[in-house]
Amino acid sequence: MDLQFTDAENSFRLKLRDWLSSVIPQLPSEPHRNDWIGRREYDSMWQRMLFDAGFAGINWPREYGGLGATPTEHLIFLEETERARAPYVGQNFVGLLHAGPTLITEASAEQKAFHLPAILKGEHIWCQGFSEPGAGSDLASLSCRAIRDGDDYVINGQKIWTSFGHTADYCEMLVRTDTDVPKHRGITWLIVPMGLPGMDVRPLRTLEGSTEFCEVFFDEVRVPVANRVGDENDGWRVAMVTLSFERGTAFVSEMLQSMELARDLAQLAKRVTRSGVTAWDDAGLRRDIGRICAELDALWALTKRNISQAQRTGLVGPGGNVFKLAYAELRSRLGELAMHLLDRASLSIDDIGDLPTHAHVHGRIHALSLGIAAGTSQVQRNIVAERILGLPKER
Amino acid sequence: MDFELNDDERSLQEGIRSFLTGRCTIDVVRANEETGGALDRALWQELGAVGVFSLRADGFGMTESVLAFEELGRSLVAGPLVASHLAATLMPAAANGSRIVGLIEPSEPVNVAEHLASLDDLIVARPEGLFVVDPAEVIGVHAERPLDALTPITAVSHLPQGELIADAATAHIWHRDGMVLTAALQLGLCLASIDLAKQYAMQREQFGRPIGSFQAVKHLLADMLTKAEVTRAAVYAAAVNIDGRGDSTDLMQTARMAKMLAGDSALFCGKTGIQVHGGMGFTWEVDAQRYWKRACVLDTHFGNSDEHAAAFSAAL
Ligand SMILES: Cc1cc2nc3c(=O)[nH]c(=O)nc-3n(C[C@H](O)[C@H](O)[C@H](O)COP(=O)(O)OP(=O)(O)OC[C@H]3O[C@@H](n4cnc5c(N)ncnc54)[C@H](O)[C@@H]3O)c2cc1C
Question: Is the pTM of this model over 0.90?
Answer without folding.
Answer: yes
